[in-house]
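Worked problem 6 (solution included).
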Amino acid sequence: MYNAMYGKGNCYDKTVDCYTTGINEVCSAADTFCADQVESVLDNIADRDEYDIREFLDDPFPETFYVAYLNTPEVQAAIGAYTNFSQSSSTTGTAFSSTGDDDREDGTVEDMRTLIKDNLTVVMYAGDADYNCNWLGGQAVAEKINSAGFSDAGFVNMNTSDGVVHAQIKQAGAFTFARIFESGHEVPFYQPLAALEMFERVLAGKDVATGKVSVKGGSNYLTVGSKSSTYREGNSTIQFVEVSQDATYNTTTNEPNPVNGTASAKEKRSVKLKKASLRSVMRSPKVFKRGKRN
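Solution. The predicted structure is:
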């Protein structure tokens, strides 16, 4: 896997070629190689869900009932939606793959710097069980943005109304990076209280860690703490048995509820068949893998 990433002519070099040339075919080849040889290793070898590495590949979370909810006329009217919400689209995923968009340099760092320069509040956050958009990569991008004072700030615990530490925060002025504990890709599903209170604090112009300090763009506010987020969860919420497809998730224990929480023998056989099908799809241009992102 390391060689696939850094070996001569492999993922890193192909990505640089994509950045340099911007040619669709070059970027698409880089995107496909990196996805198959680096990103998909977790799925294909470790048999883990890259959106939540604590779960096996056939991960039932988050449940998908919210799709029907989002498409009700009442919700669409309330939020001003003018089209139905779709969970995923193979057409859209294939279009992105054809131009290698995942591998392109898209100006994210520069755009973020512009937002910060305009004194807007910016928060980057990631669930620390998410392999796809992992928190270490997110932190690296946050450091590259190099917002004023960010290199001098440290990680502190995020205090929430339930008295439980769900995250660690590094904030300089109105720019924040947050590592959310025991959370997969869709943070509001796994840690709803932390996600809500973080959102409320941002809207209110308060610091993300406590919600008590008024923070505006361009201010000198800094979190004072460790230079690294040192919390280690161990394997307390990692699943070692397939989780039943009708399992529910407990946001207090941060793992599936024990009732119907493990798969029956019949379900395991069904899971194996599904995985064989999924792997064949994954070998095509990332149609399945883009599903949750879309």
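Discussion: The CA atoms of residues 28 and 100 lie 4 Å apart.
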